[in-house]
Each structure stands twice: as C-alpha cells, then as structure tokens.
UniProtKB/TrEMBL annotation:
It comes from Leucobacter denitrificans. It comes from the Bacteria. Keywords: DNA-binding, Transcription, Transcription regulation. Coiled coil: none annotated. This is TetR/AcrR family transcriptional regulator. Residues 37-56 bind DNA. The lineage of its organism: Bacteria, Bacillati, Actinomycetota, Actinomycetes, Micrococcales. Signal peptide: none annotated. Residues 14-74 form the HTH tetR-type domain. One of its GO terms (biological process) is negative regulation of DNA-templated transcription. GO terms for molecular function: DNA-binding transcription factor activity; transcription cis-regulatory region binding.
Length: 234
C-alpha cells in the first residue's frame, strides 16, 4: 500500500475547476459539508492544496460554486410552465412541487446547499431561482389569480414542500423511522386510542412525511386556492 507521504500527486495544471467541484461533491456526500475542507479535498483528488486555491480562493468561494451547480441542477429537474394550459394550474403545481421534493430525496448535499445554506447563493444562482418563480407567477396570473394571490399560493406550497424535504433529511440524519406496530411502546396505548387504531389498521405507519401525506396537503391547498379563484372571478 502506498502511504500518503509517498503517493504520487497529479502534475500542476492537470486538474480543472470542474474536476475540483466534482471531487468536492463526492467528499461532501461522504463526509458532510461541515467536514469538507481544502486539505481533505486535496487529499481526495491527490493534488496539492495550492492547486485548489488557484481556482477557489476559500472554502466559501468553493461552496458558492457548488451552490450554483446545485441550483442549476435542481432547476433543470423541475417542470416549466411551457406547454401547460392556464386551466391546468392545479395539475402543474402538483407536478412541480412533487418533482421538487423528489429531486431532494437521497440527495443530501443538494438539500444542504439549496435549502440549508442559502447564504452561499451567488447572484447568478439567486437570479436563476427567481426567474423560475417569475415564470410560475406569470402562469398563475394567466389562470386568473391576482399577482398577490399567485405569490401567496406559490410561497405557501414552496414552504410546505421545504418542510417535507427537511423533515425527511433530519429523519435520515437521526435514523428515526416512522412509528409502526414495532414501536407501539412509544404510544400511550390506554390514552391514545385514535393513534393506536391508525397504527393497527393494516399495519399502517404513522408517517407525516410520506407520499400520501404530501399529496394530501398539496391538494388541500389547491382546493382552497380554487375556491379563492372562483370568488375572485365571480
């Protein structure tokens, strides 16, 4: 086995910023963003740490570039309003926010960069995100909402979806499964008959962050928005 002291490093200039960013995502996925450092990244890439500083002046600079890449990736995963008829706004929003949530599942670094470390956003990343929001607001106003109603509808569903994503992320970090029959000891059986009944019925799991719960909440918001739209149009 070759020791770290004798490991052959790459030639200076043989690595690109794209290679460094790709390596940073790998290290962050393996060790977590908090444990990502220039020396650790350099060791992973088998280069001198000065080769990283040639392209990225600091860890904050590296995180900004990683966030730009993450937000670009996420925006490319989300459906656009192009081709959607205004009257299909409910189906579009359900599709949009379901895709948003799905993009974050098992993508811890993406979630941490896009949702947890918003201070790492660059101006281009911020503009890209808000251009996407602008197009959705324009689409909703075509459907009949006022600009303010469109903003409230988008922001409410966005925060709702973010809550699901972060809940799933924290559950994964803490390794806390949903409550099921195997965890009935966590429930006060004598004083919580409704919860016990829900768990016992078909061995159901009490999961606040599953697909069914997510879709149920989105549909509730959309039904209320439809009533508001009807009142506005009337």
């Amino acid at each position: 086995m070759t020791s770290n002291a004798t490991r052959k490093r790459r030639e200076r200039g043989s690595i690109s910023p794209e290679d460094i960013l790709a390596g940073a995502f790998i290290v962050a996925e393996r060790d977590g963003l908090d444990n990502l450092s220039m020396p650790v990244l350099a060791s992973h890439l088998e280069i001198g740490v000065t080769s990283i500083y040639w392209y990225f002046r600091s860890k904050d600079d590296l995180l900004r570039k990683m966030t730009t890449q993450a937000t670009t990736f996420l925006q490319n995963q989300l459906p656009t309003t192009e081709g959607w008829k205004p009257e299909d706004w409910q189906e579009f929003l359900l599709s949009y926010f379901s895709a948003d949530r799905a993009s974050h599942q098992n993508a811890n670094v993406l979630t941490d960069l896009v949702l947890m470390r918003t201070s790492s956003y660059s101006i281009p990343s911020t503009h890209r995100v808000y251009r996407g929001i602008e197009s959705i607001l324009a689409y909703l106003t075509k459907a009949g909402f006022t600009a303010r109603q469109a903003w409230f509808l988008y922001s409410s569903l966005s925060l709702y979806t973010r809550g699901f994503i972060i809940t799933e992320r924290m559950r994964q970090v803490n390794q806390t499964p949903p409550v099921g029959l195997s965890q009935l000891s966590l429930i006060d059986v004598e004083n919580m008959p409704i919860l016990v009944g829900l768990i016992s019925e078909h061995d159901a799991m009490l999961d606040m962050a599953d697909d069914e719960s997510f879709a149920f909440g989105v549909r509730l918001a959309l039904e209320q928005a439809a009533r508001i739209l009807e009142e506005t149009s009337g």
